[in-house]
Design a protein that fits this description.
Helix content: 10-25%
CATH topology: 2,3-Dihydroxybiphenyl 1,2-Dioxygenase, domain 1
Largest sheet: 8 strands, mixed
Radius of gyration: 18 Å
Number of helices: 5
Strand order of the largest sheet: 2-3-4-1-11-14-13-12
Strand content: 25-35%
CATH architecture: Roll
Number of domains: 1
CATH class: Alpha Beta
C-alpha cells in the first residue's frame, strides 16, 4: 500500500502576502478559506490545483503578529513542488530560479516530475507548465534511525536507511544539528499529511502506531476528509487523511475558495465564526 502526500500545513503571519505568492507567482488556486477547527479565530487557507486534489494542497494557518521560527532538535522544513517534465525553463524565467523563498521564509523548490493528474487552474500559466502536486519535504530529527523504523513498521514497508519515498514525493529524514527545542513561528511546518483511501485505513494505522513507537494525538472528521494525527519518535506531527468527500462538499467547484468555507458540522456556527474572522473571505480568486 502506498501513502502519497495529501497536503503540507504551515504557519504564516501575513495572509495577503502568502495568498499573493502562492496564487499569483506559483499559480495555485485558493481553494478554501476556512478556520482552524480547534480555534475559530484562526484563519486556515488551502491552496492547490483547481479542485484541491489530494496531493496538490498546501495550507497555512494564519496567526497575526507571528514571530520568527527557531529550528531545534526536531522540526520539518522545505517544501518541494512538482512541475511537469520539460517545464523548468518556464519556471526559471518566471521566478528567476527553481528554488525561491516564500514570504514566510520557506524554501520552495520546484522539481520536474513525470506527469501527475491535475485539474488545471485558469490563470496566466499554461496548463502544460503548471505546478502539478507536492514533491516532498524534510524531517530533521535527533535519531533518524528511530524515525525510519517507525515509518517502516507503521506503513508496513521494508526497512530502509535513507529517505521515505512516497511515490512520487520524497520525505528526506536527516539528523538535526541544533540542540535546542524547536519554536514554531513564520514558515514553520505544522504537519505533513499522507493519503489514505478510507476510514478503515485510519483505524489500521491507529492500531499500529503504539507498536511502531509513535504517539496518537487525535482522530478527527474535518468534513472535507477524515484525519488521524500521530507523532513520530522525533516529535514531528504526521497526519493521515482520506481522499473524500473533498472541498466541493460545501462549495461548488466553480466558486471554491471565494467564500468562508465551513464543513457541515460547523455551518450552524457560521455567524459566530464570521465575527471571529472578519478578514475572511479574502479577495476572491477566479477559478
Amino acid at each position: 500500500m502506498k501513502y502519497p502526500l495529501h497536503h503540507v500545513s504551515l504557519l504564516t503571519g501575513d495572509a495577503a502576502a502568502t495568498v499573493g505568492f502562492y496564487t499569483q507567482q506559483l499559480g495555485l488556486r485558493l481553494v478554501k478559506q476556512t478556520v482552524n477547527q480547534e480555534n475559530w479565530r484562526m484563519p486556515h487557507l488551502f491552496f492547490g490545483d483547481a479542485l484541491g486534489t489530494p496531493g496538490s494542497v498546501v495550507t497555512f494557518f494564519v496567526i497575526n503578529h507571528l514571530g520568527p521560527r527557531y529550528d531545534g532538535t526536531s522540526y520539518m522544513d522545505t517544501l518541494s513542488l512538482a512541475i511537469p517534465t520539460g517545464s523548468a525553463a518556464f519556471w526559471q524565467q518566471r521566478l528567476g530560479g527553481l528554488t525561491v523563498q516564500d514570504p514566510n521564509g520557506v524554501t520552495v523548490t520546484l522539481v520536474e516530475t513525470p506527469a501527475l493528474s491535475q485539474a488545471p487552474v485558469q490563470n496566466d500559466i499554461p496548463a502544460a507548465d503548471q505546478i502539478c502536486g507536492l514533491a516532498g519535504s524534510a524531517l530533521r530529527v535527533p535519531n533518524p534511525s528511530a524515525t525510519r523504523q517507525f515509518f517502516a513498521q507503521l506503513l508496513a514497508l521494508p526497512a530502509f536507511d535513507g529517505d521515505l519515498w512516497l511515490s512520487p514525493a520524497t520525505i528526506t529524514i536527516t539528523p538535526s544539528q541544533a540542540q535546542t527545542k524547536h519554536r514554531f513561528g513564520r514558515g514553520s511546518i505544522d504537519h505533513i499529511a499522507l493519503t489514505v483511501t478510507d476510514a478503515n485505513q485510519l483505524t489500521l494505522l491507529a492500531d499500529r502506531t503504539d507498536a511502531a513507537g509513535g504517539q496518537i494525538e487525535k482522530r478527527a472528521d474535518r468534513g472535507w476528509f477524515e484525519s488521524l494525527y500521530v507523532k513520530e519518535p522525533g516529535g514531528n506531527r504526521i497526519e493521515f487523511a482520506t481522499t473524500a468527500p473533498g472541498f466541493t462538499l460545501d462549495e461548488a467547484a466553480a466558486t471554491l475558495g471565494t467564500t468562508l468555507g465551513l464543513p457541515p458540522f460547523l455551518e450552524p456556527h457560521r455567524a459566530e465564526i464570521a465575527v471571529g474572522v472578519p478578514q475572511l473571505p479574502l479577495q476572491a480568486v477566479p477559478a
